[in-house]
Amino acid sequence: MVIQILDSWLKLWGYRLEVSRLMPSKVMAIVGTGNGTDEYPIIRAMGEKYNGPYGLWFPKTSFCRGVKRGLSAFESIIPSFKFCPSNRIFVYILDREYIINESNRKWHRKSPKKKKTIGEMMISRLGKHGIAVIHMQELVPNSSFHFNCKCGPRNFSVYTVVSGEVYKIEEDISRLIKELGGPTLPGDKENLKVYFKQEYNSKRIGWCTAKLIKNATPSQLVSSFKALSSIFCLLEAEFNSS
User: How many structural domains is the chain composed of?
Assistant: First the structure.
């Protein structure tokens, strides 16, 4: 009953609460994707391959107003504590193109020598929201990071995945299709929609990719979603130890 009431209330504000086996008070991680929607079923499918979908909360939109792309997604961390004060793990899946664009806009034109790394950019952006990074671990170079953070009395972890080798997560999806014996496709939405329409009679990229993930082996997932897999390996260990 409590879950239904909370779910109905959040929907009024544009949020979606997905609870599998754990009550909201036991949410293990809050997942954010900027303005992306295809990532939701992908992340859920990845969670099932590792430690099950339970404990992952997928807000439909950010906890702050407006569309948040790239590192702006971090703005949702502090407001989220009002909804789930017990949460201590955040997972962000961000497309590389927005981070590269932000890096070029702020640094490249001024002085290429002073251009920050992706990890440094993330630390700087977290700091703007009053979040101190105690330790940073770069899991996959320029692609996945684990930050031990502190804000006031709270200690928490922020896991961040930068999707795509060049631009976005569609490149990783194309790589998975090839790993599973499919054709070599350009990593863009239009080509994926055409392929998925033929294979699954659907153009929903996230939903179709989730089906691919369920049929993939761990090694195929690591090869295709190296950064995302590195995060879920750590999450699985963290969930099992809690």
Answer: 1
